[in-house]
Structures are given as C-alpha cells and as structure tokens.
C-alpha cells in the first residue's frame, strides 16, 4: 500500500513551513548580531550587553536546530515520494490473457498488408509510341521530435514556468522547488541539469535562470 497524495501534500506543507521558519530565524540571527555590534560600539561595558549576547547565541542555536529539522524533513519527503504513486493491480486481479491465435500466412488480409505499394503510372502517347512514367510522390521531411526530458525534469519545468520568464534571470531555490514538486532532494540538481542540456532553461550570472521560450 502506498502513501496517499494527501499525506505527501501534508509533508510538503510542513517542509515549506520549516523552510520559511529557517529563513526567518537566519534573519533574526543577523539582526541580533547587528544589535550586539551596535551596543558594544556605543558602550562596551553596558550591563545589557551580556543579555543581548546570550539572546543572540540562543537564536543562533535555534537556527541551527531548524536547519537539522529541515534536513530530516527532506529525508522524510524523499522516502514518502518513493512510497507514493499509483498502485498497480494485484496479481489476482489481473485478467487472464489468452494465447495469441496464429494467423496463416496465406490469408487474404495478410497478403494485402504485405503487398508492395505501387505508384500510379501515367501513359503518354507521343509519335505513336507509349511511354510509361512513374510519378514519385514528394515526401515531406518529418518534423523533429521534441527532446525527451523525463518525469522529474518535466515536473520541475512546470514549476519553474510559474516562477521564471524569458526576459530576466531569477534566482531559484532548489530545495523549495523540490518540496513544491515532490522531486527527491537528490534528484533536483539532476533535473535542473537536464533542463539546461535540452535547452529549456538558460543560466546567467550568479547562478540565476530564465526560460528559453
């Protein structure tokens, strides 16, 4: 029995919440560091400096803890993705397949199917003699097949089409993209590389991306 889509969605929502909390804690650590530096610059011997410094260390430890939670949740999400999917029919539920009937080679249907195609022949009378000419049908060149990029790159491309444009390069958070699309953390980089190789994305300065078309 595989996990339901509702369960996977709940894990993804939890991952998004942890990601947001981690970002806010990192901002708080930065703010506390600026406040500690400002307080030390104004009065290095201030009695409130110790409390401010301890609070800064506490927020930093919370941020580190949140990073660990985020990593563990990524593992949970990856395992859940492996357990999520459409279950195939059980062995007892599969219909019995009868053996294919052998078709005699001399049946009219087979003879018609295997008979070589012949092009129509135009007969032109000239000088009392008839000349036969075959008209070769002009074959149009087949349109090039679209590149095959696979399931994970396709999911990632559909997600990025909502974030990126063809004009400006935009930074992409691969961890958030993996949580939003359900792609395992170890496969997000491979999916992004595939999109670059097949010409679906362009990478610009600073590791930013934009759509090709």
Molecular structure report:
The chain has 213 residues and is mainly alpha-helical. The protein has six helices and four strands, in the order αααββαααββ. The strands form two sheets. The chain has a two-stranded antiparallel sheet with strand order 1-2. It has a two-stranded antiparallel sheet with strand order 3-4. The longest helix is centred in the first third of the chain and has 38 residues, at 5-42. It starts with a helix and ends with a strand.
Tell me the overall shape. Answer: flat
Q: How do the helices and strands follow one another from N- to C-terminus?
A: HHHEEHHHEE
Q: What would the average pLDDT be, to the nearest integer?
A: 74
Number of β-strand runs: 4
Distance between the termini: 40 Å
